[in-house]
Amino acid sequence: MLTLGIESSCDETAASVLENGRRILSNVVASQEDVHKRYGGVVPELASRRHLENISPVVKAALGNAGIQPRELDGVAVTQGPGLVGSLLVGINYAKALCFSLNLPLVDVHHLEGHIFSVPLTLWQEPRQAEAADLKGLLPALALVVSGGHTSLFWIEGLGLGVQEEASYRLLGRTRDDAAGEAFDKVAKLLGLGYPGGAVIERLARRGDPHAVKLPIPRIDNGKLDFSFSGIKTAVLRYTQKHLSRELAVRNWVGEEAVPRSVLDLAASFQHTAIKILGKTLLEASRDYPPRSIMVSGGVACNRALRQHLQELFAERRLPVFFPTPILSTDNAAMIAAAGHPKLLKQQFADLSINADARLKLARISHQGA
Ligand code: KG4
Ligand code: ZN
């Protein structure tokens, strides 16, 4: 069974073909980093225009790389939301037109369900992994999605892989303000390091002292497993104004090699604290909801210091922590096809009248009873 995944919720136009929902035959991602870089963030109008230009060549490349013709497909999975509405619409309309013309079934996928599936998908590429087959030994799991748009923690009892099985996700907590990746991006912008900020902060942090600047770890005392990143971002801003105004006013370093020590230390201290915030809440969650594994996905999951910290934190507790490969951590369409495949099997098809939903919800917020 061949599934085409299409993803266009933010600034990546992506398409991928999966065999039986597990084996990646192709995974094409057209990044728009060059378009948005000069603005220091994603400009929605420019994003949708670029998606329009990219969608057709990206889908064709995905089919070409997989070595298949469109008529060989068995179904299409597309991201319905959440995301930028103008961006989502490009992928959805393309998917609808393709399904209409080829008489194929369409399934809609929640972007975060896609990110959650990027961990099993990584395991499935390595068939010798004993856990990989049905993932039963890994569930229930705590799944943390950390990206530029989201920081959400789910309790997962089932992924709904079997025809008789329904997926079971419960949202345990999420960020109350900025997403973790957003904090990396804003701090990088503040320090004049460009956009997006995660990877450059990670590189500079390796050369700085993570204990040089003390930054606050928020206390969330109301029993919720929520996150907050605006306090640490504001603390970085204040520190910069007070201690680094001269460095940043001059800002005459050319290239990363010339970044001054004080900026390296601040980058390292910020990264260290952001990682601690994520680890602390995951640890609390693992006490309230004892899992058999932890799955971390989204762009921030690329961060090697985060990977190492969480592996060490949970090694003591004998809990395995899984991450996607870097290419499956950031936005991609293979994860969308993987999440859509079980829905195709169960014939949970979407109507061709579906619309983009910028604020689509995946699960009820259990602790708020909403
Ligand atoms: O998942 P993604 O591609 O898009 C969203 O759905 O948001 O994540 C992009 C985010 C950006 O905020 C970027 O700065 C962050 O992931 N990111 C990182 C790293 N690589 C990407 N954050 C920390 N460390 C990294 N190495
Ligand atoms: Zn994403």
CATH architecture of the largest domain: 2-Layer Sandwich
Poorly predicted sequence stretches spanning 5 or more consecutive residues: 365-370
CATH topology of the largest domain: Nucleotidyltransferase, domain 5
* CATH homologous superfamily annotation of the largest domain: ATPase, nucleotide binding domain
Average pLDDT level: 93
CATH class of the largest domain: Alpha Beta
Q: What small molecules does this complex bind?
A: 5'-O-[(R)-(carboxyoxy)(hydroxy)phosphoryl]adenosine, zinc ion
What's the order of the H and E elements? EEEHHEHEHEEEHHHHHEHEHH
Termini gap? 38 Å
Beta-strand content = 15-25%
Strand order of the largest sheet: 3-2-1-4-5
- Given the C-alpha coordinates, what overall shape results? globular
Number of helices: 12
Largest sheet properties: 5 strands, mixed
Number of structural domains:
2
Radius of gyration: 21 Å
Topology:
Layout: E1 2-7, E2 12-19, E3 23-31, H1 33-36, H2 44-66, E4 75-81, H3 85-102, E5 106-110, H4 111-124, E6 141-146, E7 151-159, E8 167-174, H5 180-190, H6 198-205, H7 230-243, H8 245-250, H9 261-288, E9 293-297, H10 304-315, E10 321-322, H11 326-329, H12 334-345
Parallel strand pairs: 1-4, 4-5, 6-9, 9-10
Antiparallel strand pairs: 1-2, 2-3, 6-7, 7-8
Bound molecules: 5'-O-[(R)-(carboxyoxy)(hydroxy)phosphoryl]adenosine (KG4) and zinc ion.
